[in-house]
Specification:
By secondary structure, the protein is an alpha/beta fold. The protein is built from 9 helices and 5 strands. It folds into 2 domains: about 110 residues, P-loop containing nucleotide triphosphate hydrolases (Rossmann fold), CATH 3.40.50; about 80 residues. Helix 2 links the parallel strand 2 and strand 3.
Length: about 220
Amino acid sequence: MQAHHAYVYEGPAALLGALATDARTRFGFEGAGTAEVQVELWEKFGIDESRALVTQTSLRSATGRALFVLGIVSITSEAQQALLKLFEEPQVGVVFVVLVPHGSLLPTLRSRFLEYPGKIAKSHADTAAAEFLSWPYAKRSAWVTAFVKKEDGAREQVRAFVDDLEAVLYAEHQRLPTAPVRAGLADVAHFRRYLADRAPSVKMILEHFAATLPTIK
């Protein structure tokens, strides 16, 4: 297919691998080497990261083609402003696919992208997150207490669970978009950035999700 130079996909970070696989096929990068295809994920994307990305994208592969699949969990306004020129001016042979949470891009930057031409799905029917979202508050709260105690605050396990919460909500949003589900996605995107803090209050964050996220059967 004839590719635009920049696409955005709004969804959970857990979809990055599947999105990269789809983008390779869709834009003709199957079998391409690592110099031609770059897949990266940032928990926090600031002005330093934006400058590094601009520098990186100026280094062309031997073929003159490149695919950048970029997963960004949270991004500052300053970083978005710094990326305007990069995504405004097409580079021949270069395709960007950016994965971000719903509603996280400023309108000025969002306008530089086309919607990604496809839907990426990942089944979470059997995950703890899917079960969690099907429960009433009392059962959710009891599970949070047991989970935090068992994991002893292990950040990677908590982050993986929050990723799965977002993925289940996103799948529900694709199936039946409602105001509570959209609010839940925004809530997860807002609170997950605190997990990158030095000593995040994991129990408080998960208890908040237990109380506020919609029930999904």
